[in-house]
Amino acid sequence: MARGFNKVIIMGNLTRDPEIRYTASNKAYARFTVAVGRTWKGSNGELQEHTDFIPVVVWGPQAENCERYLSKGRPVLVEGSINTRSYETQQGEKRYVTEVQALGVTFLGGRRDDSGSGSAPSRGGDVGSFRDGGFERQGSKQGADDFPLDISEYEGGEESGEEEADIPF
Questions:
Q1: 107 close to 146: Cβ distance less than 8 angstroms
Q2: Phi/psi at 116 (nearest 5 deg)?
């Protein structure tokens, strides 16, 4: 059988707080759903909108951090793979579940406010991700926009002493 490739990246908002549980061997896992909106022009030329609700499962210390720092409405970026499993109900019916098995979860937006509600991110909060149990901080500046990349250091011009290059298109 040929080797396949299974990679998914989704970005959206949590529809509810992460729900954490533990296996019999005391390994943590968290479940949450990410709402991902998309738009397109229909055949009649009108703008169409649709929202997909994608279930996500996160394992280990990453799950505990998701439960601790994420809450309903918070924006996230999830990297992982699509996983399909089946189980049998008490009535003997076979059910199938398709979900994203997260390998990395990046917290977007600002920090939670100090009231603990977590629904109102503050400006200039840290943007980072939890991978393999450790927090990776991604260039935050107090009072900066929530976008994690400062493009001013990549632009040529007076500060860098470089002139802009002519692009042939």
A1: no
A2: 90, -5
What residue type is 155 in one-letter code?
A: E
Amino acid identity, residue 101?
Q
Tokens at 10, concatenated: 């989704």
> Is it the case that residue 33 has pLDDT exceeding 70?
yes
Specify whether the CB–CB gap between 113 and 46 falls below 8 A.
Answer: no
Beta-carbon contacts of residue 15 (< 8 Å; ≥ 6 apart): 32, 33, 34, 35, 53, 72
Write down the pLDDT at residue 168. 61
Name 29's bridge partners: 21, 59
Q: What is the pLDDT of residues 143-158, one digit of tens each?
A: 444 444 444 444 444 4
Residue partners of 130: CB distance under 8 A and separation at least 6: 61, 62, 65, 66, 104, 105, 107, 136
Give CA–CA dist 13/108, Å, rounded.
9
Domains of the chain: 8-38+46-153 (2.40.50.140)
Local confidence band at 5 (pLDDT 50, 70, 90 cut-offs)? very high
- For residue 158 the two structure tokens come to 């007076």
